[in-house]
Write a structure and sequence with these properties.
Arc Repressor Mutant, subunit A, Jelly Rolls, alpha+beta, AraC family transcriptional regulator, single chain, HTH_AraC, transcription
Length: 285
């Protein structure tokens, strides 16, 4: 375990196979530029004060509380004191929550921070997986508990209404298969069997973001895999479906809150320089 007081920023990721991403990090000053995820970001401040702007106000995450940032909500991150802050965060796709809750509007935690002990207890097993990876059935049980804790603490953001969950899932599956190329509204309509505006409304309610942003985030996720595997930024951008490297960097900053170069540096890596890697269609993420 890293010391609470560090001289430079660092980040580490859980490396065991999992359906969620889990990180632990330390930032002494400024952490992240304003950005959005298409996942829930659920975490805990381990030391110091984790300050961030969320829904027009400055929030302060302290040890003992649970941070729950809703998908597609703009936020940043910085140290609230000179001590810096250390934290753990898990990123869980709304589709996993939907598979448990069965097609209701996504639970919303007001203000992005909760002191509710149910959320604290539900998030703990998953956040501890940075050090002690969970077995598949343990992870399933933990995700089940987390989904129901979110629902109990946050409730429904909107009055329940009829959604075409199977149609939205068909559209999401189509995006996962073809995100690396241009996808038209007509294609999603045909793949889902749902009228385009009805699909857009359902997709936002069920997965927390629009189909277009979901495509962009899938491309960024694939870019991260390629960069960690040693691909250059230019090749990663093209293989993921961006027009060029600058196009990818712009979206990377907007989605992650870090430049690709700084993101790699926090992982202890330098920017790859290999080029002319043979293209192969990506496997489903």
């Amino acid at each position: 375990m890293k010391n609470n007081i560090a001289t430079q920023d660092w980040l580490r990721r859980a490396t065991a196979p999992s359906r969620i991403e889990i990180i632990e990090a330390y930032f002494r000053g400024h952490g992240y530029q304003p950005h959005r995820h298409d996942t829930y970001a659920i975490g805990r401040t381990l030391s110091g004060v984790q300050s961030f702007r969320y829904r027009g106000s400055m929030r302060h995450g302290l040890p003992g509380s649970t941070l729950v940032l809703h998908p597609d909500e703009l936020h940043d991150g910085e140290a609230g004191t000179e001590e810096g802050f250390r934290y753990r965060m898990l990123y869980v796709e709304p589709s996993l929550i939907q598979s448990i809750l069965g097609g209701q509007s996504l639970p919303y935690i007001k203000g992005g921070i909760s002191a509710d002990p149910r959320l604290l207890a539900a998030a703990t097993p998953l956040l501890c997986a940075v050090d002690a990876p969970l077995q598949p059935l343990e992870e399933d049980e933990a995700l089940y508990g987390l989904a129901h804790a979110l629902s109990a603490v946050g409730g429904l953001r909107f009055h329940r209404r009829a959604f075409d969950y199977p149609a939205a899932e068909r559209a999401r599956d189509y995006i996962h298969e073809f995100f690396y190329r241009s996808i038209s509204s007509e294609e999603l309509t045909a793949a889902s069997g749902r009228e385009r505006w009805a699909l857009s409304r359902d997709f936002r309610a069920l997965y927390g973001t629009s189909p277009h942003r979901y495509v962009i985030l899938r491309r960024i996720s694939y870019c991260k895999q390629l960069l960690l595997a040693g691909f250059s930024m230019a090749d990663s951008a093209i293989q993921a479906g961006f027009t060029d490297q600058s196009h990818m960097i712009r979206h990377f900053n907007a989605c992650i809150g870090l430049s690709p170069g700084r993101w790699l540096k926090l992982h202890g890596l330098s920017s790859p320089t290999c080029t002319n890697v043979q293209y192969a269609p990506p496997a489903a993420l």
